[in-house]
Amino acid sequence: xxxxxxxxxxxxxxxxxxxxxYPFFTxxxxxxxxxxxxxxxxxxxxxxxxxxxxxxxxxxxxGASVRTLRFPPYEAEIAPFLRPGRNTxxxxxxxxxxxxxxxxxxxxxxPPAVGPFSFLDIQGPIDRYCTVPFGPGGxxxxxxxx
Length: 146
Description:
single chain; three-stranded antiparallel β-sheet; mainly beta; elongated; 1 helix
């Protein structure tokens, strides 16, 4: 991080940010959720999420780093980081530069891989944008086990 940052707080209630008004987003998006729990002593608490649509996701609980989620299963044991009362779970999703730099108008639609030839258009202009999905990718949940 540098000395300058732009932030915009909003309630995003979708699994995919690209189609929700952020088509060229690049960088890291932070999602926070507060929850009240009783005494977690002796319980197992598992954070579990569907496949995130990002390069990687970082999970923190109450400011403590829990795990970086890069590969399935996208789960982490969070009981040691919880305390009775109010807790804050933060999920930071880091994307790639693909939606910022393109190619946005590839003749074949979304190419499976991007390289120098992905930016050559031998068929003329294409009147649509191609982007890759970015976001939490679906439901995240806590699983409590005794």
